[in-house]
Specification:
It is found in: Nucleus. Helix content is 43%, strand content 21%. It is elongated. The relative contact order is 0.13.
């Protein structure tokens, strides 16, 4: 700063007005050059909305593209869509897309089970064992969204069909109180052909929180003796929101129920594994929610085993099943090999598209203009200000920082 003041004072000591003007012009020229460089850099890294405001060339090209094909005809409201019980994995039938839970949800759950969903790795957090049950749990923290949980529960001497009905039976949940958080339940919609349901739950939360309301869509697919049970939050504007209980919009809780070998070591497939994937945004800070889940998880889970045994006894005694359990029998059959083929085809197509994009992306020499101008402006400024090595180093460092993104 002192060097700059000395330079300005030297200019104003000039004998003639013309000489002073020439000196000021010589001093201001690099500054104007730096400002011009700044404008060019700002334009090179402008946000997307700036291109829209000034009529970006990319927007003009998009406007010249041919219009998309006409949308499929909408089914009139007074005509119920013809829903089939056989899932066509690829492509999904239009009737299936209209349901609260459709084939895309099956694909997502299948990828979670196969650990092919592309999410973060799971962190092991719990391992507990009872005489007739083993429980393991994992957690992961996605970049955006609440913590996600994965658990494996293996019940000895239990069939997948009974376990499926047990988790679907809201009436028994409340009657037996194995899930003591469920206060109210009601069925809002159901499809007798696919078993798709939309239900409303009210769950009890601790005294310092208000109760929570859930609008849940659910459906079951079956491949052999393996059941994929999807439950997730679905929007229903027709159900008015209330201050209490508070509505939970982001909710996902789905199971894969399948037979596994008993730990008795006799090779018999008399045990049943339940793979659960769960996450929700309860309106509680996520770190506090993680602490609460970790502290209360096992206390809730160990109540499931006696509830299941009581359900087995009731079924063996011939007690009639509830309407909810009856809907669990309406499943959509599919071939798991179709999902493997479809997933492989999608992965191959995505890989080919990425490679094509990399090959077709041109590297034009004009891409280096912003870096050249920035470094040139830095050189001019560094030569103008005779402030020592620290000033020059700061200017060159700033230029290198702004020019760096072009190399990444």
């Amino acid at each position: 700063m002192s060097a700059l003041l000395d330079l300005l004072m030297g200019i104003f000591r000039q004998q003639t007005l013309g000489g002073a003007a020439l000196e000021l012009a010589a001093l201001a020229a690099p500054l104007w050059l730096a400002a011009l460089v700044g404008l060019l850099i700002g334009w090179a890294w402008r946000p997307r909305w700036a291109g829209v405001v000034v009529g970006d060339h990319n927007a003009q090209q998009a406007a010249q593209l041919p219009p998309p094909p006409a949308a499929a005809a909408v089914v009139p409201r007074n005509e119920a869509p013809a829903v089939v019980t056989r899932t066509v994995v690829a492509p999904a039938a239009p009737e299936d897309e209209q349901l609260a839970v459709n084939t895309r949800d099956l694909m997502h759950l299948w990828r979670l089970v196969q650990e092919k969903d592309g999410g973060p790795s799971w962190i092991h957090m719990m391992d507990r064992t009872l005489p007739t049950m083993r429980y393991q749990a994992w957690r992961r923290d996605p970049p955006n969204g609440p913590p996600q949980y994965r658990s494996s529960t293996i019940f000895e001497d239990a069939s997948p069909e009974v376990v499926r009905d047990f988790f679907w039976d809201d009436e028994f949940r409340v009657k037996n109180s194995w899930d003591d958080m469920l206060l109210q339940y009601e069925t809002l919609e159901q499809c007798a052909k696919t078993g798709t349901m939309v239900v409303r739950w009210v769950r009890k939360f601790p005294f310092f929180c208000s109760d929570r309301e859930y609008i849940i869509g659910r459906r079951i697919w079956a491949s052999g003796k393996t059941f994929y049970c999807v439950t997730k939050g679905v929007p229903r504007p027709s159900v008015p929101r209330q201050n209490k209980p508070r509505r939970v919009d982001l909710y996902y809780s789905s199971w894969c129920i399948r037979p596994v070998e008993s730990r008795k070591g006799d090779g018999a497939m008399t045990a049943c594994e339940v793979l659960l994937f769960h996450h929700e945004d309860m309106g509680i800070p996520w770190e506090i929610a993680k602490l609460g889940v970790r502290q209360g998880m096992w206390g809730c889970v160990k109540r499931i085993e006696p509830g299941l045994r009581a359900y087995q006894v009731a079924r063996t005694a011939g007690e009639p099943i509830s309407k909810h359990a009856a809907m669990a029998h309406v499943t959509t059959r599919f071939d798991a090999d179709e999902l493997v083929t479809e997933d492989s085809a999608e992965a191959s197509s995505s890989s080919d598209n990425n490679k094509t994009a990399e090959v077709e992306k041109p590297k034009h020499w004009t891409n280096n203009i912003p870096k050249v101008l920035m470094i040139g402006g830095a050189v001019a400024l560094a030569c103008t200000f005779d402030g020592g090595l620290m000033t020059k180093a700061a200017i060159f460092g700033t230029a290198r920082r702004f020019a760096g993104p072009g190399r990444r």
